[in-house]
Amino acid sequence: ADTAGKRIALSNNYAGNSWRQAMLRSWEKVTSAAVADGTVAAADAFTTAENQVTEQAAQIQNLILQGYDAIVINAASPEGLNGAVKEACDAGVTVVSFDGIVTEPCAWRIAVNFKQMGKDEVLYLADKLPDGGNLLEIRGLAGVFVDDEISAGIHEGVAETGKFTIVGSVNGNWAQDVAQKAVAGILPSLPDIVGVVTQGGDGYGAAQAIKAAGRDMPVIVMGNRQDELQWWKEQKDANGYETMSVSIAPGVSTLAFWVAQQVLDGADVPKDLTVPFLRIDQGNLEENLATTEAGGVANVEYSLEDAKTVISGAM
Amino acid sequence: MTDGPIVLVDGVEKRFGAVRALSGVTLDLQAGECLGLVGHNGAGKSTLMNVLSGIMVPDAGRIVIGGADLTERYSAVSAMAQGVRCVFQELSLCPNLTVAENARISHPAISGIGWRRRARALIGGMLDQVFPGHGISTDDVVGDLSIAKRQMVEIARAFAVTDREARVVILDEPTSSLDGVSAEKLLAHVRRYVAAGGTCVLISHLLGEILNISDRIAVMRDGGVVALDSARAFDRKSLVAAMGSVAEGLQGPAAKATPKRADAPAVLTARPETKSETLALSAHKGEVVGLAGLSGQGQTELLVRVFRHAAGTEVRGDVALVAGDRQTDGIFPLWSIAENISIGSLRQFLNGILLDHGRAQAFAQDWRARIGIRTPDVNQPILSLSGGNQQKALFARALGSTAGIIVMDDPMRGVDVGTKQEVYAMIRDEAEKGRTFLWYTTEMDELRNCDHVYVFREGAIVADLPHAEMSEEKVLHASFRDDGVRVSA
Amino acid sequence: MIGAIFSPRVLRGLLPPLSLAVLLISIFWLQPRTMSYFGLNLLLNLAVPIALATIAQMFILCVNELDLSIGGFVSLVACITATWVQETPLFGLLALAALIAAYAGLGALIHIRQLPSIVVTLGMSFVWLGLAVLVLPTPGGKAPDWIRSLMTLKPPMIPFPIIASVALALIVHVALMRSAGGTVLRGAGGNPAALARAGWSILRIKMTMFALAGFFGVLSGMALVGLTTSADANIALRYTLLSIAGVILGGGEFVGGRVSPIGAVIGAMTLALAGSFLSFLRLNPDWQIGAQGAILIIVLALRLLIRQAEKRR
Amino acid sequence: MSRAAILRQPWLWAWVGALAVWLATAAFTGGTGSGQVISAALTFGAFFVIVALGQMFVITLGPGNVDLSIPACMTLAGTVSMKIMDGAGAMIPVGLAVAVAVGLAVGVINYTLIRALRIPPIIATLSSSFIFQSAAIWYNRGLRVKPPEALGDFTTAKIAGMPFIAILVIGLAVAMHILLARTIYGRSVLAIGQNMRAAGLAGIRVERIRAITYIMCATLAGLCGYLLAAFSGGAALNMGEEYLLSSIAVVVIGGTSVAGGFANVPGLWGAALFLFLLVTMLNTFGAGAGVRLVLTGLIIIGVIVAASGGRHKREG
Ligand SMILES: Nc1ncnc2c1ncn2[C@@H]1O[C@H](COP(=O)(O)OP(=O)(O)OP(=O)(O)O)[C@@H](O)[C@H]1O
Ligand SMILES: Nc1ncnc2c1ncn2[C@@H]1O[C@H](COP(=O)(O)OP(=O)(O)OP(=O)(O)O)[C@@H](O)[C@H]1O
Ligand SMILES: [Mg+2]
Ligand SMILES: [Mg+2]
């Protein structure tokens, strides 16, 4: 089938941090090219004012009314939008969810294995710190599933490796200043810690708080923000500081776009796709830092070819 | 019911912190009588009535109604059940409800299907009976009514009868916000009610009213009843003497006959905002200008416009205002008396950019003494003052300011006779010194203090009377439309 | 006669429906597809839980208090509905009844200790959210079928959200604005001292109003789950501000017992539609958030215009 | 001051609460790091106090007055000033001026909506906050620009273990206390909060005072955005989120009356420390998020109930 007449919408629930901004920009960049060369007729992005399920549900319902052929969703909740998603499917709209995925069976899901991501953090630390020790965990926003997944992975990793104890856990809400504040508060009461496991967007804040408390710098797992990488680089140059950084690339929105396009094109696409997370190590730090915009997030954008590879890989 | 008093309060005491509001008051009420209750501001009249209507628990003493001692567990509910009704000094209506709905609040018997119709009939009928020609619709929202109309509604509500009769009706300064004509209507109704066997307690600072209407008169002073006798046993002078006021000497026309208009410059001119034909008002330096007429004819609006230097007025100099509706326009309830007085003159206490609290304190002390506010300490909360004393504090605020023009919105509501005379003298004195007063009043006596009187009717100024030409007859004549029914005063 | 119909009070009352009408017409104009049974259903169904929460807030505002916890409360109810009510209906409904009782208790606490309701409910917003996280640590659960089928009802001719909103507005209007008992409840907002003097118990009134708020909060949470099919702990946090804005938009005031149930429902609808209106405009993503603010301002400015036009007449 | 008079001080309970949770934390950890916790509390408390000072004056104006645009204003001021400075030390004063100017502009817009369009403040500031948030997004699209190093060092500096920023904000609080208690402006705000109509009729320039108050509140938010962005290494689009409810909570827990007309500054510091130490205590105890939230709520209510203990119900 031809998708030149098809219209695709992005329903995004939050725009309040650099990751989401990078995601929106990747979308804009890739889809405007696709519209210009006539691959699709339109690819509009919609963002809700506040990160709320109800608002996004209403937004999806409005997109149905506007007659979009496909809706690409980064969802505020994996379950809370199922009502609206079902309405969309019933109205014949293709729904593709990514990052924040939805569980409604009629929708496609481009998932990241968040649990594995959490576990990998601990496995890396176990490798690097053979003697084990105490860990501080910085979590995201309570009651959100990504937070639970990553945390579950971390705890699984801790149990498997058997070397570490999590001596403190705070909610940093994926925000720099909140993480900094929470860490500064709990730090004085903690014994020595060897590592900090994080969820992204909070590593630099933790480093600031630890520095302010005058403690030895533990291994802080970073989350691909440019300021985190920059700080890591400075430490690396100064004293050989070693760590790793891991997060999901904001450009996954473009993969979702191509998947939606493929579905509209009549391609046979499995309902569940997985994308690897973007991991940066001691070796490729400089290279990634160089390609990351100042104040932004390390990113990977997808082309139609990349998307086809991901799809066929999942068959 | 002829045997024994219908209500007896015996040895009632009530203290508020250091203030002894009631010190062993004994008073009886007989069926079919009107008891007049007078006393200086803060004598304890309202407190006694609050005790009688069950909303304040006395510290000591007995309350006996219809021969039964109800002191234990006496409450607002039991007072209502006994047919004791009270029109309180401060507004007791819900401003967000309609007149009919307010009737329902104090008459729980009105309920079920069709309650609204019955409430309308009840309150509307009673309003027609007490204040014929009142101009109030039972569907008016109370908050939109003038203070006089609210007072009428409250009075009518107290007299209204549902499943419970109104055996004792207490009226705490009911006429203070009514114009003369409405007050007459109310007093006539009180007489009818008493003649039919009801009992009424009337509290007022208008001694003429008390002397005319009451069967017996009780005089309170400093928390106790100091005289109680048949009304015939008192006259104006002996009442004043019993209340302990001394300043009553300055009766009669106080205004100078020498007209100031000739040589003093005009400091303000104003014209009411109205579509009908109207005269303009002007006031010259050092004049006391009276605004007369029935209540709610646009006087307050004009005062506020002068105060704000609004368009259509020409005002030279600062203006201070003495509010009459003190609850909504005057007091700051969280503050002390001193803070309430000094807020109008803050600039005087500046030391650089900072306020000197010591000077503000001294200022308040000074005015407390000058205007005789009854309180042991100006740092007490303003709400600890009796109604009349709160009003005095507002006077102190305005007179203490540096404003050259003072507008007064029926400011003597609830002020006792003694104080009134002192305030009149103070106004004259300040006028001599060059201040100009705009004085809206509903009391004929007060107009005699004015150099010039403008009479308002339906939002317009319809008469302009210099002091020499002013008479009660003329004011009343101007207050009513020619084709209207003349109510004899 | 005309004068009586267009008295200031009536006109003031007409403002909220007029704003709603203008918004609705603009939406119809932008996207004619919405002007159908299917379209109206999609446009308005999520406004139903918001309207219920707004009514809950209105009961609190009516007695001069403010509830900053209603969003958390609705979230908790949604979590309980999607779990306990679904699995063990009796226990679940008991838990919801206990929540209503807790609301009444809050009213009593606030009155007896003379506490500022803002602080108490601010504290309670943490409590409700915490309980919601405990009941449902990760998003999920499932709406009981009966609620789901109620909320997706397709009555003939008129879409369900419209019927539900009209019924809600009318029932609360009759109960609060027209009945003898409702009058007393409102009076407590206008002049509590006067009610106490007339022998009414302010404590009981406060408890009743809070319990009513709790009741409508429960309905809101259940309706919400019926639409979303499952819950999460953060699902309705936004309702706190939405409900306050809805009451005010509907002509209610913060103090003095001046509220209007019909206005509140209309206010909630207006807020819900404002968001839709914008997505039909297809703005640049940078300004989509700001446009939501702009539209609120425009709706309110519209009211000012009408008010001034009325004054000039 | 007599014992009874001290017990009646409205700020007392916030301080008692702060002390109690600090002691509880210290008891749990056996005293390890208790001093450092205080230092952290002072640092982070300072940011809350800056915005709470403005919010306090606004809330004191009376029922319905509240500024919900504080978070957006902080974000916008932080974003714009960081980008303009672009890490250059010489631009620090310019950045400060820009942040303050953003605050002023936000305040003027808020007040214009309230006054000219007669929009209730709660809705006016909520609506405008969306616009400011959008402006911040549009201006820099969420990129985190680093603050000049000297500025970052300044905000994290300590003098004898005492965070420098806390010292500054204590000074600011003292100034605000004097503003409230000893100036015509302060008296006017208190009067308006009790009875706006009476205030106008007592000769107070009601609208001028309201304008000043909203503008001052936004300006303080702008200043806070600048300092917080410098402190945490750049402005983020969500940096102010927490400050929406917290600014109100700090004000009311600190003993300011939400009904208006009564305010107090010392309570702000007490409440800010209390809220920080409370979260720290629950984190230290290792409570899960659910339990932590429930306890936070219950303890806040507990403090308020305790604070109301000395208050007697008025009769009549
Ligand atoms: N709630 C209260 N708290 C403290 N003191 C009070 C209170 N109510 C009344 N008082 C004091 O009790 C005394 C008697 O007051 P009350 O109101 O009974 O006087 P009143 O005779 O009615 O005066 P007025 O003619 O001015 O109305 C006054 O000194 C007053 O200050
Ligand atoms: N007719 C009135 N009588 C008394 N008070 C009023 C009246 N109308 C309005 N007010 C109240 O008084 C407040 C003061 O309004 P106004 O704009 O006149 O202030 P102002 O003190 O003259 O301010 P400025 O001159 O500094 O702008 C209004 O906001 C309103 O709440
Ligand atoms: Mg009295
Ligand atoms: Mg009179």
Secondary-structure blueprint:
The complex is a heterotetramer of chains A (315), B (489), C (313) and D (316).
Chain A: E1 7-12, H1 18-36, E2 42-47, H2 53-65, E3 70-74, H3 82-90, E4 94-98, E5 108-112, H4 114-128, E6 133-139, H5 145-161, E7 164-171, H6 176-186, E8 195-197, H7 203-212, E9 219-220, H8 226-239, E10 245-247, H9 252-264, E11 272-275, E12 278-280, H10 285-291, H11 304-314
Parallel strand pairs in A: 1-2, 1-3, 3-4, 4-5, 5-11, 6-7, 6-8, 8-9
Antiparallel strand pairs in A: 10-12
Chain B: E1 7-16, E2 19-29, E3 34-39, H1 45-52, E4 60-65, E5 68-69, H2 76-81, E6 84-87, H3 99-106, H4 115-130, H5 147-159, E7 168-172, H6 180-195, E8 199-203, H7 207-213, E9 216-221, E10 224-230, H8 236-243, E11 266-270, E12 281-284, E13 288-292, H9 299-307, E14 313-315, E15 319-322, H10 326-330, H11 337-342, E16 350-351, E17 354-355, H12 357-371, H13 387-400, E18 405-409, H14 417-432, E19 436-440, H15 444-447, E20 452-457, E21 460-466, H16 472-479
Parallel strand pairs in B: 3-8, 3-9, 6-7, 7-8, 13-19, 13-20, 15-18, 18-19
Antiparallel strand pairs in B: 1-2, 1-4, 4-5, 9-10, 11-12, 11-14, 16-17, 20-21
Helix pairs in contact in B: 3-4, 4-5, 12-13
Chain D: H1 3-7, H2 12-29, H3 34-60, H4 70-85, H5 92-116, H6 121-140, H7 149-156, E1 158-159, E2 162-163, H8 164-182, H9 184-194, H10 196-201, H11 206-231, H12 243-253, H13 266-285, H14 289-308
Antiparallel strand pairs in D: 1-2
The structure holds adenosine-5'-triphosphate (ATP) (2 copies) and magnesium ion (MG) (2 copies).
Could you characterize the architecture of this molecule?
The complex is a heterotetramer of chains A (315), B (489), C (313) and D (316). Chain A is an alpha/beta fold and 315 residues long. Chain A contains eleven helices and twelve strands. In chain A, the strands form three sheets. In chain A, strands 2-1-3-4-5-11 form a six-stranded parallel sheet, with helices on both faces. Chain C has one domain (15-306): ABC transporter involved in vitamin B12 uptake, BtuC. Chain C has helices spanning 2-5, 8-30, 37-44, 47-62, 70-87, 89-112, 117-135, 145-151, 160-178, 180-190, 192-197, 202-228, 239-249, 261-281, 285-312. Chain C is globular. The mean pLDDT of chain C is 88. Chain D is an all-alpha fold. Chain D has a single domain (3-315), classed as ABC transporter involved in vitamin B12 uptake, BtuC (Orthogonal Bundle). Residues 310-316 of chain D have low confidence and may be disordered. Classes of the chains: A alpha/beta (315), B alpha/beta (489), C mainly alpha (313), D mainly alpha (316). Chains in contact: A-C, A-D, B-C, B-D, C-D. Chains C and D meet through helix 7, helix 13 and helix 15 of C and helix 6, helix 12 and helix 14 of D. The site of one adenosine-5'-triphosphate has 8 residues of chain D, from helix 10 and helix 11.
